[in-house]
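Table S4 entry, 3-keto-5-aminohexanoate cleavage protein.
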Amino acid sequence: MHFFDDSLYPENQEKLVIQAAPYGPEWLPGDADDLPLTMDEHVQAAVDCYNAGATVLHIHVRELDGHGSKRMSMFNELMARLREAVPDMVLQIGGSISFAPEDEGGDAQWLSYDTRHMLADITPRPDQVTIAINTNQMNIVELFDDEDIEGTSISKPAYYKAYRDMVVEAGPEFYLEHLKRLRAGGIQPHFQLANLSQLETVERLIRKGVYHGPLVLNLVAIGGGFTGRHPADLIEFIRRVPDGAVLTIEASMRAVAPMNAIGIALGTHVRVGNEDNLWRHKGERISSVAQVEQMVQIANALGREIATGQEAKKIYKLGEWYADTDETLAHLGMVPNRRPGRRGSMLRDIQN
């Protein structure tokens, strides 16, 4: 993203879109005070986050036994109820579905490609499904302190090992087909990127004509194979994102607030919730709703306005698709592909 001298002035930045992730698929009941269990609790979590200022909802579904659901019927039921309860929210299904181990000796696994493809068939359809690009280590506990997981299920050695050894399976066989199915269903992909190499893969998909649509993405700065917490890496990623893209910052545990504060100041968007963080300060728990409120407070202190639900949908460019590669590159503020025989840098066409 290009920064002008006045780019840090809040009146020149997009209004802040806050994603809420209140369904914590890696946790079990009791790990977080506000972890939804029943369907009514799932819906109420969405309503509470929306009332606090969140306009995007990152969705997972939990069975009554506390484990993440893999039943499409439950996703369909929750989607229908959310459309009624929070009609102005952007409804975003978590593409991992559920990676929590089924029991203490199980693996924390992303589900098969075929199962994840079924997310394109949810009815009513979601606005977005998150999509991982390239197979990658996802050791979510690498940056956790002992205090972060004290008293939670992940403090148990078997669960800890399961999350330490977790891998995101997302090779070309997956993402090429998944992008095709999401486009056929009119569902916007929300790219969850672990590092710059994955951003480069997405750019290649755009330049090769595989994807024609808005570039909406999260930088997932959680370490363990993903980007970590070094501010220079965060800023470099922001710098490399095309001007026409929409970028949200996602971190873990007590780094969520400071990383997001940087993001708010630089004009990006933020994600919070018990899926990412359980703590306000060391030893003091914080709910998903309180995390949303904290982002509103930081934005207010900087003078940056909070987007309404309708404004978030416009910022995310929901419903937009582009005709071809050239149109996509133009909308994203990217220079054209190299023309045959053209040497040097490619420039945008000058309109007479």
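Residues 100-331 form a domain with the TIM Barrel fold (CATH 3.20.20.70).
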